[in-house]
Amino acid sequence: MRFVVCTYGEIMKSENGISKPKHLAVRIALFAAFFLLAVGAFAYGVVGYGHQEEGYQSISTSADEEEPNYASGFTLQYYFEGRSDAIKQQMKQVSEVYSTALKRAYKLLDKNNAYDGYNNLYTLNIEPGHPVVVSAELYAVLQDAYDKTCQNQAYSLFSGAVNDHWNSILYSDDPQNFDPAVNEEERERLETLTAATMNRENFTLIFGEGNTITFTVSDAYQKVLASCEFEGNVLDVGMLHDAYVVSIVANALEDAGFTEGYLTTESGITHALSGQKSGKMAVYDANGEVAKQVSYTPGSAFCQFRLYPLIEGELGYYSVDGHFRSPAASPLKLNETKHSAAALSKNGSAPDAAFACLKLLSGGELSDESLPALVITKEGSLVENDKMIELQ
Fold it and tell me: What DSSP string describes 242-292?
C-alpha cells in the first residue's frame, strides 16, 4: 500500500490502492488563502521595516570618496511629521542639503588641501600677495574672523603655524615631555612664534570688491618660522572652525526652508534652527553632571568649551600644571580652578558664542553684556556675570 502526504485535506485510499486527495476544491482554496496571508504578512513586514515615525530623526550624510570624514563630529537632528512616505521624502531632501553644505564648508575651510572648483584657505595660503576671488561664505567667515582677531583676545586668524605645532606635540609619542610647561626649549620656541603671531603688522588681509581677498605674510614672520623650524600654512580659522561650519550649514538649511531642528558638534556647539521650539541647554560641571540649564529661543546658538590637560589628547586649548595654553597667545598662568566656559548667542551666531568662551577661558572680558555667559569651576560653582553662584 502506498500513501501520498498532502499538506491540506484528508487522505483516502482508493480501490486500486492509490491514495487520492479528498475535497480537492476546498484544499486548493485553503492553500490560496494561506499563500495570500503569507505574502501579505511579508509585505507588511517590509513596509513596517521602512516606516518612518513622526518626531526627531538623526540625518545621515552621503558618502564622499574624496573626503570620507567630512561629516565627522557634526550631527543634525530634524523634526518630521506627517505620513511615512512624505517623511522619507523630506528626510532625503534634508540630507541632500545638509550633506552638500557640510562638504562645502569642509573644503572652504581646509588650509592644507586644494579642491577642484574651490578657492579656499589653502588657495589664499599658497598665493600670498595675489587677489583671490572666494565664495560669499568664505568672504563672510574671514571678515568675521579678522574682526575677532583685531580684538587681541584669545584668538588669531593667523595662528595656523602655532596650531600645527601644538598638534605635532599632541600626536607625538611622549607629549608630556614636549609640553612647554616642562620643556624650556619648547617654551622659548613657542613664545617666539606666538609673539610674532600676535603682531598683526606681520600680516595683511585686504577685503576687496567682488569677494576678492588678498593675503600677505611679512618676510620677518617667514624668518621666524624658519629660525624656529616651524612649518604650516598661516591662515587658519583654528578654534572657531566648527562654529563657522555650523553657521554655513545652518544658513543653507534655512535658505532651503528646513528650519525645524538643531545642529550639534562634538566640540561643544549647539545651534537651534529658527523653527526649533524653545527649550533649555544643559551646562555640565567637572563631574559631567548638569550644573545649570540655560533657556534658549529659536535661532540661538550655544557653546561650552572645556580646558583639557595636554596629556588627555584633546585638540584646541590645553591646561597643564595650572598653565593655560592658547594657540594664539603666549602661555598664561590661570586660576587653577577654572574648568570650562559656556555662552549663549541669542542671535544665532555660533562663532560669537564660541569666541565668548575662548575669551572667558583666557581671562578676558566680554564686551557684549547681552550675551549670557558663565565660567564653570572645578569646585562645583558658576561664575556668572562676575558673580559666584554656588551649586546646590
Answer: HHHHHHHHHHHHHHTT--SEEEEETTSEEEE-TTSPPEEEEEE-TTSSEEE
Give the C-alpha separation, 392 to 389, whole Å: 9
Whole-Å CA distances, 249 to 137, 265, 273, 344 = 10, 12, 10, 19
Residue 48 DSSP symbol:
H
CA dist., res. 345 & res. 359, Å (int):
14
Q: What is the pLDDT of residue 389?
A: 56
For cell 542639503, the residue is: 97
Task: Give the confidence band of 79 by pLDDT, cuts at 50, 70, 90.
Answer: very high
Q: Tell me: the pLDDT tens digits for 116-165?
A: 999 999 999 999 999 999 999 999 999 999 999 998 888 899 999 988 88
At 333, phi and psi to the nearest 5?
-75, 125
141-145's contacts with Cβ under 8 Å and 24+ in sequence apart are 141/108, 141/109, 141/237, 141/244, 141/247, 141/248, 142/205, 142/207, 142/213, 143/207, 144/244, 144/351, 145/237, 145/240, 145/244, 145/351
Polymer length of the chain = 392
Q: How far apart are the C-alpha atoms of 221 and 197, rounded to whole Å?
A: 8
196 touches 274 (CB < 8 A)? no
Residue 123 burial by CB count (10 A; 0-12/13-18/19+): exposed, middle or buried? Answer: buried
Enclosing H/E stretch for 338: strand 338-345
DSSP 171: T
Cell of 376: 564653570
Could you tell me which of 335, 339, 341 has the C-alpha nearest to residue 323?
A: 335
Cα–Cα distance between 250 and 348 in angstroms, integer? 9
How far apart (Å, rounded) are the C-alpha atoms in residues 321 and 324? 9
The helix/strand/coil state of 13 is strand
To which residue does cell 553662584 refer? 389
* Residue 270 pLDDT: 94
pLDDT in tens, 212-244: 999 999 999 999 999 888 888 999 998 899 999
